[in-house]
Each structure stands twice: as structure tokens, then as C-alpha cells.
Amino acid sequence: MSQLKNDTFLRALLRQPVEYTPVWMMRQAGRYLPEYNQTRSRAGSFLSLCKNPDLATEVTLQPLARFPLDAAILFSDILTVPDAMGLGLYFAEGEGPKFERPLRNEWEIKNLTVPDPRDHLGYVMDAVAQIRKSLANSVPLIGFSGSPFTLACYMVEGGSSSDFLQTKIMLYSRPELLHHILEINAQAITAYLNAQIESGAQAVMIFDSWGGALSHSAYREFSLAYIEKIVSGLHKEYDGVKIPSIVFTKGGGLWIEQMAAIGCDALGLDWTIDIGQARKLVGDKVALQGNLDPLVLFGTPERIVTEAEKVLESYGHGSGHVFNLGHGISQYTDPENARILIETVHSSSRKYHEVSSQ
Amino acid sequence: MSQLKNDTFLRALLRQPVEYTPVWMMRQAGRYLPEYNQTRSRAGSFLSLCKNPDLATEVTLQPLARFPLDAAILFSDILTVPDAMGLGLYFAEGEGPKFERPLRNEWEIKNLTVPDPRDHLGYVMDAVAQIRKSLANSVPLIGFSGSPFTLACYMVEGGSSSDFLQTKIMLYSRPELLHHILEINAQAITAYLNAQIESGAQAVMIFDSWGGALSHSAYREFSLAYIEKIVSGLHKEYDGVKIPSIVFTKGGGLWIEQMAAIGCDALGLDWTIDIGQARKLVGDKVALQGNLDPLVLFGTPERIVTEAEKVLESYGHGSGHVFNLGHGISQYTDPENARILIETVHSSSRKYHEVSSQ
Q: Is B188 in a helix, a strand, or coil?
């Protein structure tokens, strides 16, 4: 990783010394940026944007042209894998992702197969390679996927849900069917993330957006166990360089000790947990990424500074912290407020990384 | 409370010895019961049902006629207080609660006043008195309200929200305005719950449905602090009988130690926390109510029994546990599955309350 001009993000994930706390923002390439909305309207739709490597590269780089971010993240969707399985991903205006062919019958579940990422997901690999080239070793590129359980929720429900009724009916009445979906998903995601690494991703993140809807015991059995399978199957190094992995279960604050034990390098945290308390719980097992409430960015400049500094202070001295929001940045955010946040993190964090205090 | 034929629920809340673990279900009077749907269609709408003491009494008693539940809960809505403040509560079909006049301007917030519960909320007090009389000392009656923060979310947003954007914009940019709403709400809810106690409620519960959307520090400042004010202002006894209070923040599992310190008698838990771990954290400060995932009731009978027994076993021996779901029962639940749950809790819990094992 020495060829990178700025490898602060990777060093923080590996809990190696850094000069300041690196920062990136979930959904940093997105609708709060006017330049993103222009590219998206040229693409025609969100999905066309994801599937066009030139345009995906363009929007991935947009926030980096504006702000001194410490990492880029592939512009894509968390549901590309089930789309490649043939479920037919589409976006109804204002309604979020949907599948044309959700899993409704046992035979559909039994017929699921692991897609070859180089084949049906070639557009993602092309985007990764092109973004990596365009970044020209400025900052590292993060690849990502949804988690097996989160994908399964969408695959079974056919779209978003407030309570995941169909998924949980399956979980409590036909658990073996859900386990079958999760097993296929875990294999598919492992292959998908490894292909992203081979195409140029320098870190990978697994988004478990809906694991937090599960009971504590169901979380272990139906979400974390399959994330662990993926993590154990990921390339730990590629081309002689370590590839850190980040696991983020939104609403998973109660389970971080278990999560820290599955072999990943870092955990993403939402804003409900105090990051300092989380650090005490996980010890030196993993780095932590987070965890500002994204709606802090609607506060006054003074408030944004204060709240960002509270997170830095709570984490305290030493490496192992990647600053981020606790969830994606809101589409209504003023980009200038994102700038205030990023600059605050860079300037206010230096004192926590002075050698004498580590 | 000695005149009650079954005071198991009240004794468990006060951590006094019981013979078995008492059980009731959030939203036990509701749409999963065909008799409820009949009464509701007679009433014309959900709100007419809430505002008609005869019909509210009828539906409150329906689940008790079917099942051996250990408590009744007032049939009402969590948003009656802001309705009494003049915001105009209504229910758009399939959309949840809305307000005709949400708080949009500073002067509207400054003009908020505490409603007299005997006046604008007289229909609730009439329902409480009538239900209490109809129960004829069979089981205790629970009164309730939404929490100050949860009411404020609806008052500011004007309805449900996935991210509470308007409320959080106020929180981070004009916190003094939100504090003013919360202060008025806390005073109004204290008066409202005390009036329910004076009308016959034998325990009270505060539903903080949306506190879990806050960051850990904002939760303390904008939700828990105001719940604490209410709890400290509640009648602790009425007519010489103790009135236990239950506080439930959905998604509040990370904060239960703070919650246990505010002076309430019990905490409600959703299904994301292991109730045995929660018991270790709160010690003998409070009783615990919960915490089965309501969607377990879509499982096979065997699965329902197994999952209920897991909760009982996790809590372990001794009093201080009120069995409940971690959230309201789903409208799609088969009532026979609710019966399986209730009977399992009654029969399987006896071994945890044998004197030799306490």
C-alpha cells in the first residue's frame, strides 16, 4: 500500500499509527451533490448509472473532487447480487428497490444458484477497475456488498419492508429454507467481494442493513454466522497488500462483542452507541468506523463541529478509528456542511494521534 | 391490591414473589381479533372507537374473554395528548396517525399549552373508569401514554417518518424549541397519567416508540430526561395501593442501565436484547417486561413454545419478569397462536418461581 499517496484510511483500519483520523461518508456519492444529480439524469435511472462503468466512475469520484476525503467507495447498489441471480432488480420512483421475481415458492429457493461475478456482475468489476485507475493511487477504493440476511430480506419480501413479515414467517416456520437462501448468498457474496478485490478494491465492507431487525439469537444464527463465512473466505491479502474488511450491522450495537470475534478488521457503528464504550467492549480486536448521526449535518456550523468533536473525544487517543456517519448522508444535506464535518475531523483529530499520547 | 383476584402482574412489577410469570401482549386488543374488527366497523373509525368509552371498554375486554391474560390495557392511542392540545389527530387509511396542524412555526410551539386531562381528555378518563368497573377486580388495568419525545416527533413531522428529519433538524439547529415542546409534553403527560390513575389505572406505561432513533447522548437529553420528569411526578400510590410504572424505549437496549436509574419500576424490552443479560445489567433496580419477537407467533406451535421458553429460561429464577412481546402483536397473527404463547408462559414458568429456587 506504500504506493498510495494517502493510505491513512487503510492504516486506521489495521490499527496502525496515523497522523489524523481518516474520514469518508456512507453514500458520499449521491443525491445531495448537484453534480451527481446531473450525471444521474444523463444516465436515465439509478440502475443505468450503476450498470455503466464510465458513469459509475464519474459519480464515485465527484465527492473526492469537492472534499479531502480519505477513501472512495464504489458507486453501486447493495442488491446487485440477487439481480445477477435473476430476480430482476428495479427501482420504482420514490419507493426504493424492488424485485420483479421475489422468492415465493420452495422450488424458486431450491433453484437459486451462485452467479459468476465475472459474468453477470462484469459491469461492477469494470467499474472497480476503472475507478481504481482513475483514482491514480490518491486514496484507497472500498468495495462492498449487502449481507446475506439483508439480501434475503429483499429477495423474500420483494422490496423494502417495515417489519420483514414474510422473511420472519420463513425464519420461524421454515428456517431450513431461509438457511438455504443465506448459504447461497454467502457463497455468492464471497465470490463477488473477492472479484472486486481482484479488480482493484483495497478494502471491503459488508452492509447488514436489516440484521438489527432480528432477535439477539436469530441475529447470530441468520445474519452473523453467514457474515462470518464470508469474512473467512475473503482474500486477506492481494498482490502482497492487506485487504481490510468492515462489517456494519445497523442497529447492531448490542452485539458488537460477537461481531468483533468473527475475524473482520473493523466494525461500522450507527449513532446509537457511544464509540468510546464500543471501543472498551471490543478492545484491540477490531478498528471502529463511525458514528455521527447523519442529521447532525442539518445543524448550525458550530453544532456540527461540537458533535464531530464529541465522537473524536469519545474514541480518544490512538489509531483504530475511521470517522464516518452512522448511516448514509441524507439527500437534503447542504454539501457545505459535509465540508465543515470533514475539515473538522482532519483538524481536530490530530491531537489524538500525537506520538506522546499513544 | 389484595381485592384483585389476580394481582400477579402487579407483584411481578414490584419484584414480589409470584407463582408463575404473568403475561400480557402489547396491542392485545386489536386487529388480529375478528371481534375487534366487528366493533371497529361499528364505530366507523379507529378514532371514534378510542373516543367512545363504551366501545373502548368493549374492545379492551375482548382479549381477556378469549385468553387467560394477567392484565388489561386501556384501549386508546398514544397521540391523544397532542390531539387535546389542538393539533387535530386523524388517521388516513393505511397511513398511520397524522396531525392536521403539525408544529411548523415558532409561535405555534410557544403557544402550546398543557391540556386539562379531565376536560379535553375526559373520554379517556371515562373509558378507564368504565373498564376498571367492568374488570370487576379480575386483573389489573394498565394506563398509558406516548413519551414526550415520541409525541414531539409526530407533532413536528405531522405523521410517521422513517428518519424524523424535521424533528432532528430542530434538535440540531434550534434545540431550545424542541426542549420547549418536550417540557410542555412532559407536564401534559404527567397530568394525563395521574388522571388515569385517579380514574382507576393500576399501573402505567410510557411508550417511547421513537427514542431509539436518537444518538446515545441525544437520547439522554431529549427523551430520557423528560421521561424521568414524568416518572418523578407520577402518583406512586393511590388509595393506599402502589402504582407501578413501566418505561419502554423501542431500540433502547443499549441504554437500559441509564433507564433503570430514573425511578420507574420496570423497563419494557424489545427482542434485540437478551433478557438475561439485561437482568444482569439492571440488577435489582427494576423489573423487566418482554421480550419475544411478535413475529415468532407466525412460527409452528413447537417453535412458539421453544422461543417462549428461551425467554423464560434467559430471565431465570425469581420474580421481576412480566412476559410480553417486544412490540405490538401483528394484525396478521392467528389468535390461536397467541393462546399457545400465553398457555406456555403460564405452564412453563412455574418452575422458575418455586420457593426453593428463589
A: helix
Nearest chain B residue to A307, by CA: B172
Q: Which amino acid is at B169?
A: I
Q: Tell me the pTM.
A: 0.96
Partner-chain contact A168 B272, CB within 8 Å: no
Query: Catalytic amino acids of A?
Result: 27, 31, 40, 77, 154
Please report the ipTM that was assigned to this predicted complex. Answer: 0.94
Instruction: Determine whether the interchain pair A293/B168 forms a contact, defined as Cβ–Cβ distance below 8 Å.
Output: yes
Please answer whether residues A77 and A97 qualify as being in contact, where contact means their C-beta atoms are separated by less than 8 angstroms. yes
Give the helix/strand (H/E) hosting B136: none
Q: B225 by DSSP, 3-state: which?
A: helix
Main-chain phi, psi angles of B31, to 5 degrees: -65, -15
Bond from prior residue into A111 cis (ω within 30 degrees of 0): no
Which residues in B lie closer than 8 A to residue A299 (C-beta atoms)?
172-173
Reading chain B (358 residues) residue by residue, the pLDDT tens digits are 448 999 999 999 999 999 999 999 999 999 999 999 999 999 998 999 999 999 999 999 999 999 999 999 999 999 999 999 999 999 987 778 999 999 989 999 999 999 999 999 999 999 999 999 999 999 999 999 999 999 999 999 999 898 999 999 999 999 999 999 999 999 999 999 999 999 999 999 999 999 999 999 999 999 999 999 999 999 999 999 999 999 999 999 999 999 999 999 999 999 999 999 999 999 999 999 999 999 999 999 999 999 999 999 999 999 999 999 999 999 999 999 999 999 999 999 999 999 764 4
Residues of A with CB under 8 A from a CB of B: 163-165, 168-169, 171-173, 212, 214-219, 251, 253-254, 271-274, 293, 295-296, 298-300, 303, 307, 310, 326, 330, 332
CA distances from A130 to A140, B158, B326 (A): 13, 45, 47
Using the beta-carbon criterion (under 8 Å), do B272 and A295 form an inter-chain contact? no
Q: Which residues of B touch A314 (CB under 8 A)?
A: none
- Is B132 an annotated catalytic residue? no
